[in-house]
Amino acid sequence: MNRNTQFALMTGLCLAVIVVVAIFYLSRFQVGQELLQVSMIVLGMLSVAAVMAILRAMDAGIKTPLISITFNEASASARIRTVEAEVIDAEYTEYKDFYSESDFSPAALAGRDNNFALAKLRMDLEQQILDVARRSELSEPYMPFTASKIFNLLVEKEVLPVELESVWREVMSACNKAIHGGSVDDETTNSIVRVGIKLIITIRQAANKAEQSNA
């Protein structure tokens, strides 16, 4: 094991320990809602970083990836289009690069580090769902739930359209496989990122419309 591999492994393990200790602390002590939300986001990012570092350390000894990621962009985009006309404002009729000015946006990372691009996309999706949940004032104690569970709650409360549920599952599944070391080529990564960006925008606009209807 060379020095770079050792460093990557130790970094990943240290980050994993930090996440475990932080989760233990949050479970034992009551903290404010705002602090809890920020903590969950930060811990999610640290978890992704830990997994990516450990996978990079292991990568030298693995000749063939265990998972190959595929994605049907046409099918997912078609399902998003079923709700676009109802929720998308005029300014979003043409999709542009999301966070195009950032070097760490999923679109900017695609083709440079595909696994990291999809990890970042998952973080952006989770952040969007947490924002919608906070604005929607869910009565359930939703913070301990996963982002997918929160998404399902928002669908049940008709904050988000049910048509987006399957797209959410497919995009998150692809992102999770990438985080766990799946092999993904540039074309597939760009397909997932394009759909993910559309999904983020559609979720945001659908939540805005639901908020206006309940005002």
Would you mind describing this structure in some detail?
By secondary structure, this protein is mostly helical. It has two domains: 1-63; 66-214, no CATH class. The protein is 69% helix and 0% strand. It contains eight helices and no strands. It has helices at 3-28, 33-59, 73-87, 106-109, 114-136, 147-156, 165-179, 186-214. The longest helix is centred in the C-terminal third of the chain and has 29 residues, at 186-214. Residues 90-99 have low confidence and may be disordered.
Instruction: Give the integer mean of the pLDDT values.
Output: 78
> Which percent range fits the helix content?
55-70%
Pattern of helices and strands: HHHHHHHH
Global Rg: 18 Å
Structural class category: mainly alpha
Can I get a quick summary?
The chain is mainly α and 215 residues long. The protein has 8 helices and no strands.
List the helices and strands and how they pair.
Elements: H1 3-28, H2 33-59, H3 73-87, H4 106-109, H5 114-136, H6 147-156, H7 165-179, H8 186-214
Keywords:
215 residues, 0% strand, single chain, mainly alpha, 69% helix, 2 domains
